[in-house]
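so my prof wants the structure for this chain in the tokens format not the other one, which i didnt know existed until like an hour ago. anyway here's the sequence
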Amino acid sequence: MNFLNHALLFGQEGGGGGLSGLIFMVIWLALMIVVIAGAWKTFAKAGKPGWGVLIPIYNVILLLQIADKPLWWIILFFIPLVNIVVAILIQIEIAAKFGKGAGFGLGLAFLGFIFYPILGFGDAQYKA
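here's what i got, hopefully its the right format
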């Protein structure tokens, strides 16, 4: 069941008029817009097209380029468990490219909805 169905079912529980589900969807949509905008700005700071964040697989290619990792690493994303480790390593390297530490990289990996807007809208500069 997709997210929209969950939100609609959530709004219908308890005999309410669906207002709680609508509020949940509006908050979720606002959060997604902030995250996409932050990632867009992060890509743009690194000299990559910001719209690339919206294109599946291409956004991973751009992340690999920003992290200065070889393109063949994309294959590692298709290997279970290895993909988690690789994704964390890439986020740590992206943080390093913006002058941030490994803790910030872990924040990008696990709390990207908070850390990508900080990186994109903050004063961090990309160091090639």
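also thought this was worth mentioning. The mean pLDDT is 90.
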